[in-house]
């Protein structure tokens, strides 16, 4: 925090306590409203014609944007533009598990309005003043600030316009770069430095382009779900694991799994002859083809396997530090314990340390 305060004092380029909202995904639309209100009420904007909303993962050629806007003299008022989707993302997301979930009671329309894509869009100052003036009355779609802005400006019958050469890296497939881009979104920090270096050295913007390394890391986030919903959505899985040995004294892991209180399955596993990843794949394959299929979807299967992996790691650690005893008429107790300990150690080395790797 001290570093942030120092930068704020030196450069004046940060807003921290000035905005009356929380800095979180679900507050994005409210943050845009508060930002526009702060801009309109706290800055001298006699000469300003536009306000731009931009993410920190874009590279913006400001001089080229200014040139584009200056050539469009009729856009100085009632203007809202950026990268406007045409046929993509036109339907509201109705899946409660999705990050962009829109319940019917919040948005009953079958289609979304045209909107300028969230990483980079701008509006004329009169539109910003309208939102600022009504910021307490305008309702938002929580984290979907770009769609919220489109709905707010629809009350003025202001519709989004495509600004040439606004693009994002993952907006097309295969991912591409164009030297004419004015605003380029979804970039990694290293890609932004490369693009800036290219510009400083007089090279084309896309020099050295690589779709993988230039892309911002994506975590494929889901929406933020309240704890009670998360608990209700979890597959009900009960696990019981037993350690034993076969007639040759080989370690055997026997697991019983009860899924959603409806399906009981059992799996036997010999760690010294079968890799743990193969064992997990065998379980996942069974769950994918079980009846009834609606018990678990793909995410549910992954959750069960991840839970099973964690359970195995925990159980193996406990077994290694406790007396694992099985009937053995040949070996003495001391010999048996040494064999068991050696097999458990070998098993532990084969287990994933985090217990959640992909099956």
TrEMBL record:
Keyword Lipoprotein: no
Sorted UniProt keywords: Glycosyltransferase, Golgi apparatus, Membrane, Signal-anchor, Transferase, Transmembrane, Transmembrane helix
GO cellular component terms, A-Z: Golgi membrane
Record's subcellular location: Golgi apparatus membrane
This enzyme's EC code(s): 2.4.1.-
Pfam families per record: Galactosyl_T
Topology in membrane: Single-pass type II membrane protein
Gene Ontology MF annotations: hexosyltransferase activity
Main location: Golgi
InterPro entries assigned: Glyco_trans_31
Family membership noted in the UniProt record: Belongs to the glycosyltransferase 31 family.
Name listed for the protein in its UniProt record: Hexosyltransferase
Organism placement in taxonomy: Eukaryota, Sar, Stramenopiles, Oomycota, Peronosporomycetes
């Amino acid at each position: 925090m001290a570093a942030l305060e120092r930068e704020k004092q030196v450069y004046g380029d940060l807003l921290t306590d000035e905005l009356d909202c929380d800095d979180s995904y679900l507050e994005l639309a409210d943050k845009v409203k508060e930002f526009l209100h702060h801009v309109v009420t706290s800055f001298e904007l006699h000469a300003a014609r536009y306000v731009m909303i931009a993410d920190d993962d874009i590279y913006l050629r400001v001089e080229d944007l200014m040139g584009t806007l200056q050539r469009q003299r009729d856009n100085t008022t009632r203007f809202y533009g950026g990268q406007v989707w045409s046929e993509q993302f036109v339907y509201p997301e109705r899946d409660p598990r999705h990050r962009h979930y829109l319940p019917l009671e919040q948005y009953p329309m079958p289609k979304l309005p045209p909107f300028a894509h969230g990483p980079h869009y701008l509006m004329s100052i009169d539109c910003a003043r309208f939102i600022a003036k009504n910021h307490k009355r305008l309702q938002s779609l929580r984290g979907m600030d770009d769609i919220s802005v489109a709905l707010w400006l629809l009350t003025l019958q202001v519709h989004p316009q495509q600004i040439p050469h606004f693009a994002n890296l993952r907006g097309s497939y295969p991912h591409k770069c164009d030297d004419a881009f004015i605003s380029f979104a979804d970039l990694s920090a290293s890609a932004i430095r490369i693009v800036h270096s290219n510009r400083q050295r007089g090279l084309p913007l896309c020099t050295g382009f690589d779709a993988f390394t230039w892309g911002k890391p994506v975590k494929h986030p889901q929406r933020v779900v309240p704890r009670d919903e998360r608990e209700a959505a979890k597959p009900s899985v009960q696990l019981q694991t037993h350690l034993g040995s076969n007639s040759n004294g080989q370690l055997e892991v026997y697991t019983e799994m009860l899924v959603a209180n409806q399906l009981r399955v059992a799996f036997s596993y010999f760690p010294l002859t079968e890799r743990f990843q193969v064992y997990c794949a065998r379980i996942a394959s069974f769950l994918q083809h079980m009846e009834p299929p609606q018990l678990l979807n793909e995410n549910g299967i992954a959750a069960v396997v991840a839970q099973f992996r964690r359970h195995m790691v925990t159980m193996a650690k406990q077994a290694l530090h406790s007396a694992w005893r099985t009937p053995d008429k040949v070996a003495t107790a001391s010999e048996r314990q040494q064999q068991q300990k050696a097999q458990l150690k070998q098993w532990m080395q084969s287990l994933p340390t985090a217990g959640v790797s992909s099956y």
